[in-house]
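pinned: reference chain
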Amino acid sequence: MRERPNSLFSGRIFASRSWANVLACLLLVTSSSGCSSTTSTQRQDDAAMATPADASPLPDRVASAPDSQLDSNISVEVTSPKDSNSGKDSNSGKDSNSGDGQFPASVIDLTSWKLTLPIPDPAMAGSKDPWELGTPDLAAFSIDPWFTAVRDTDGPAVSFRAPHGGITTSGSKNARSELREMNPGYPKKSSLYAAAWGTNDGKTHTLWIKQKVTHLTSVKPHTVTGQIHDLRDDVTVFRIEGHGGGTPDARVTTADIWITDGDNTHAFLVESNYVLGTAFTVKFVVSAGVIRYEFNGQPVAYTQTKNTTGCYFKLGNYTQSNSGTAPTEVDAAYAETLVYAYELTHQ
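pinned: its structure tokens
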């Protein structure tokens, strides 16, 4: 398949911002039907969060409950957005109020993303497909516990949670609460507005994420927290694989962080003793057919050479556990990632 033509515009919006920024960024959007649009986002208030150049260690914290405290069945009932004074999430110990508003869109900019959830769309009775939302619905959307605004010791964040037994997309056996890159300010969920760029298209494409993994499943404690995908499959991802596990009552607190290369899940080991609940940063840099990486602001001594098209970024939580790979796992077991900020550029 041939790559969609590149966008004729570039915008600048904020990934951690006020509602005023949303209005400002929309003024920068120029529509281009069928094109692969690009977006540039920039971090605000570097004093309040780590920057790509800041590799200083962050406090270790494990803030989640054993799976035995969860219901054995996954609820797909849709409730109204969490009240700003609802207090703490009893499963994770996190404050459910972000401090900046009750919706994830008040923490990170969502105008260039489509959300896929691990539950069916409540408006489609009997649906076996995951619920997907985009602009403008995400501006005032939250659903507990799968996609919520929270605050913990490292500040306001968006919680992405996906269970072992969740609803999956047609191309995967694993559930996700994950954002897929779209053109900035796109008006609806349509493939015409899906971002699609090439690794060797003359531009530099980057995604920086500040995040932490707070919880992993027990039997197969693996999850993915950032991806580059193309028209066919994932190109490369940051993959977290917990130490131990193997039984439904296992409690995982440390993990390896791997960079993958297609189906090679262990292409390069970035971190061998990651402590769950510790904030960290990752970055993809794609230019001239080469993919480079950063971890906690430092270049990773590993690159990949790729020539592919139809590419897009993904971030959030993509739980790597299902009934085939972890048959003894309980459906309610979950992985959770908190995202504090991101920076997305195409220049």
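why pinned: The radius of gyration is 19 Å. The first helix runs from residue 19 to 26.
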